[in-house]
Amino acid sequence: MKRLTLKLKLTLLYTFFMLLVTCAALAILFSLSNRELLATVQDRLTHRVQNSADAVILRDNVPAVETDFYSVESDVYLSLYDETGYFLMGRIPHGFDSEPEIKDGQIRKLREGNTQWYVYDMSFRLSADQTVYIRGITSVTDAKTSYRVTMRFALILLPGLTLATAFIGYRFTRRTLLPVRRITDTVQEIRADADLSRRIGLPESGGKNRDEIYHLAETFDEMLSQLDEVFRREKQFTSDVSHELRTPVSVIIAQCGACLTDETLTEEQREQICLIEKKAKEMAEMISQLLFLSRADQGRQPLEMEELDLSELTEMVVEERKFLIREQGLPVLLTSEVEPGIKRRADETLYIRMLGNLISNAVAYRKPEGQSKIHVSLTEKDQCIIGVVEDNGIGIREDALPHIWERFYREDAARTKGSHSGLGLSMVRWIVEMHGGKIRAESRKGEGSRFIFELPRTEK
């Protein structure tokens, strides 16, 4: 199940609480409004009846009313009764067919069918010996119907209000978290291309809207600048030190060669000088690799691209390595299976170095006993050139596989045959990627390893 994003979580949380507050407010409002509605209806009824007393007069000692008495105001119908409860004049609402007993000063709720009514009677003395009753009748059901229409209208608006709240909340949250998204994208880009010069670069706000996230982005940019400077100095230091070491190491190798020409040396002295020369050459190779990677980091390692027959070049590298293996007397069987006629634009020197490093790595991590086997293959499939260097050596632990491309990383230095600096695979990966390809490793501890590089048929 796909995990919810932070934007969606905050939007749902914001919408939930807004909906909860709105529903609670509407529930309280409707509850209070219902009571207020009934109180208002009763108040209108009593006021209308009381005010209508001015419209009741005596004419020729007979009760009479003015024209306003017949008008229906505030949905209140008025009628006039004598002391015995006999109807004299006025208006009775349609649907009110009963003739309830007159009760002075009381508001009563009566039901006629599906309609509820409020009835209010008030006595009024026209003269010293003559009293009449004014009755007011109003429909509670009609008032509640208007109230229900309002309530339904509010409930209809509620989903729209919820959607509007969710939309506004999402836009607000998205805008608020935009710097976080930019921070994430920047980190992913840095991880993808290892370019510490990238920055989040939020727009200047002139002191406005500089919230915690904005300051976080600024802090992140400052940290990137410091890291970039640290790595730049480290690269420069590596380059400078490598350059400075080349001369003394070259002098050591030259002097060892000169000393070995002296026929007066004892066998023990000759062995010691040979050991010094061997270690100096290993140091020279490491310096060469460091210089290569340093130039690559600084973008100063050129690629001399030309049309090459990779099949012939691969066979040539394999034959050269076979000769070195025989010369060193190593128990290693190196074989190859190369599809002929595979051509592509590439840097000849770097391709030889890449393939040579892979074979050298397989030789270095061979098994301590018995004959080791290394097989090199090169094929073309689906417009892709696939090269494989496979061995039956000591293998690599699964948890170590992601780290083998790191500089100076060696899974088990104690079991490495000969001198191995841990820089070879870093160079291999860089060379493959600079040719637009990719490389991966497959291995099982104790069973051997397979390094597979893939190059697109055409140069990218």
TrEMBL record:
Can the keyword Cell cycle be found in this entry's annotation? no
Q: Which UniProt keywords apply?
A: Kinase, Membrane, Phosphoprotein, Transferase, Transmembrane, Transmembrane helix, Two-component regulatory system
Q: Please give the InterPro entries that the UniProt record associates with this protein.
A: HAMP_dom, HATPase_C_sf, HATPase_dom, His_kinase_dom, HisK_dim/P_dom, HisK_dim/P_sf, Sig_transdc_His_kin-like_C, TCS_sensor_his_kinase
> Can you tell me where the transmembrane regions are?
12-32, 153-172
Protease keyword on record: no
* Residue intervals of the HAMP domain: 174-232
* Residues of the Histidine kinase domain: 240-459
A GO cellular-component term linked to this record: plasma membrane
Which SUPFAM superfamilies has this protein been placed in?
Answer: ATPase domain of HSP90 chaperone/DNA topoisomerase II/histidine kinase (SSF55874), Homodimeric domain of signal transducing histidine kinase (SSF47384)
- Record's protein name: histidine kinase
Q: Which organism is it from?
A: Merdimonas faecis
